[in-house]
């Protein structure tokens, strides 16, 4: 009798916890990510309560904004993630009050509504508690996770963790191949060499390019020699482009397009026999 009661209690407890954060969601490693916040509180000893303190693994050390009407804390996950839930721990202090704050998931650090969707509204102070907020209407996809508080006061976060799943629309292949071999590899192993038709894709591909070990990465933009025009490997014409200022569209035969690993990830014409890392659409 006692045992079965205990058993039922245990089942109840485990089913009540984190409905959206069931096993299968990985805890997102945050300490290699970048966080920022609307302002930084500095105490009388000159200690800056910067945004990264919310995921330093120490629940006694907090991120803390100044007192203001609109405050926010954002982490850049440096890639696209499907976010399932966010857990917030705070100490039991009077100035901790996150009631009414919103957890936003977006693709822009600007938090503009067009690029942002709401995961959950915080309905408790979080004072002295560890609370998990599941995205209310299902998981959300994005690169930035923001806690946005538009009521006056401080925004304090002792510790934040989140669970989700990495979504990689593009994959950097760290092998040095000629353009044709890169195309062949992508078509065999994935979908295709990447085509960049808009700025959003340019931003994701640029992010992947940063991890390359060659100074350029191949893109799926090829020059059709006899006809003197550029075309993506998925047969789309070029409406959006990011050519480097010193590049001209007219090419010599045997040149295709590679993206700069650094800087603004501009595009350059490179000999098809050069060997670079490359980015596949997956
Ligand atoms: C972010 O971009 C991804 C990939 O383009 C898209 O699936 C997702 O819906 C976007 N998220 C938001 C909040 O707009
Ligand atoms: C979830 O959907 C319901 C019903 O459409 C809506 O009222 C609520 O605001 C949504 N929650 C969030 C966090 O977007
Ligand atoms: C806060 O929201 C959660 C999830 O929507 C709900 O289960 C809980 O009862 C709410 N708490 C309060 C104090 O309203
Ligand atoms: C705060 O956010 C809520 C919900 O997004 C909105 O209705 C309200 O107008 C905002 N208040 C201010 C002062 O911006
Ligand atoms: C590719 O070339 C770069 C230098 O251009 C080199 O650092 C790297 O080790 C090479 N990678 C492979 C897998 O050979
Ligand atoms: C492309 O998007 C990025 C990030 O959202 C933005 O900073 C940049 O200004 C945009 N560039 C163009 C050409 O629209
Ligand atoms: C443009 O500049 C880049 C980097 O400095 C260089 O690799 C490339 O060859 C230049 N292109 C032209 C057409 O001068």
UniProtKB/TrEMBL annotation:
CDD domains named in the record: CLECT
Signal peptide (residue range): 1-16
GO molecular function, one term: fucose binding
Swiss-Prot/TrEMBL GO biological process terms: regulation of cellular defense response; regulation of complement activation, lectin pathway
Swiss-Prot/TrEMBL keywords: Calcium, Disulfide bond, Lectin, Metal-binding, Signal
Keyword Signal found: yes
SMART domains, sorted: CLECT, FTP
SUPFAM superfamilies the record matches: C-type lectin-like, Galactose-binding domain-like
Segments forming domain C-type lectin: 170-281
Acyltransferase found in the keyword field: no
PROSITE patterns linked to this entry: C_TYPE_LECTIN_2
Alphabetical list of InterPro entries matching this protein: BG_Antigen-Binding_Lectin, C-type_lectin-like, C-type_lectin-like/link_sf, CTDL_fold, FTP1, Galactose-bd-like_sf
Function: Acts as a defensive agent. Recognizes blood group fucosylated oligosaccharides including A, B, H and Lewis B-type antigens. Does not recognize Lewis A antigen and has low affinity for monovalent haptens.
Assembly mode: Homotrimer.
Similarity remark: Belongs to the fucolectin family.
Name of this chain's protein: C-type lectin domain-containing protein
Organism expressing this protein natively: Astatotilapia calliptera
Source taxonomy: Eukaryota, Metazoa, Chordata, Craniata, Vertebrata
């Amino acid at each position: 009798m006692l045992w079965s009661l205990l058993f039922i209690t245990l089942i109840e407890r485990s089913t009540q916890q984190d409905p959206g954060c069931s096993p299968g969601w990985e805890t997102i490693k945050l300490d290699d990510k970048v966080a920022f916040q609307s302002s930084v509180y500095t105490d009388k000893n000159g200690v800056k309560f910067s945004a990264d303190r919310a995921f330093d693994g120490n629940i006694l050390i907090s991120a803390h904004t100044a007192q203001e009407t609109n405050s926010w804390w954002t982490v850049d996950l440096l890639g696209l993630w499907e976010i399932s839930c966010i857990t917030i721990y705070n100490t039991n202090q009077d100035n901790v009050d996150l009631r009414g704050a919103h957890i936003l998931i977006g693709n822009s650090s600007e938090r503009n509504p067009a690029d942002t969707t709401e995961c959950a509204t915080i309905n408790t102070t979080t004072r002295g508690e560890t609370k998990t907020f599941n995205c209310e209407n299902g998981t959300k996809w994005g690169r930035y996770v923001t806690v946005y508080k538009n009521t006056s006061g401080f925004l304090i976060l002792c510790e934040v963790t989140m669970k989700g799943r990495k979504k990689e629309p593009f994959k950097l292949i760290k092998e040095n191949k000629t353009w044709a071999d890169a195309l062949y590899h992508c078509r065999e192993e994935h979908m295709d060499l990447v085509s960049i038709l808009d700025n959003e894709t340019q931003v994701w591909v640029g992010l992947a390019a940063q991890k390359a070990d060659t100074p350029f990465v191949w893109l799926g933009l090829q020059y059709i020699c006899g006809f003197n025009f550029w075309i993506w490997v998925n047969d789309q014409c070029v409406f959006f482009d990011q050519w480097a200022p010193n590049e001209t569209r007219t090419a010599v035969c045997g040149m295709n397009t590679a993206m700069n690993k650094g800087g603004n990830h501009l595009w350059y014409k490179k000999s098809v026999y050069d060997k670079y890392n490359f980015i596949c659409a997956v």
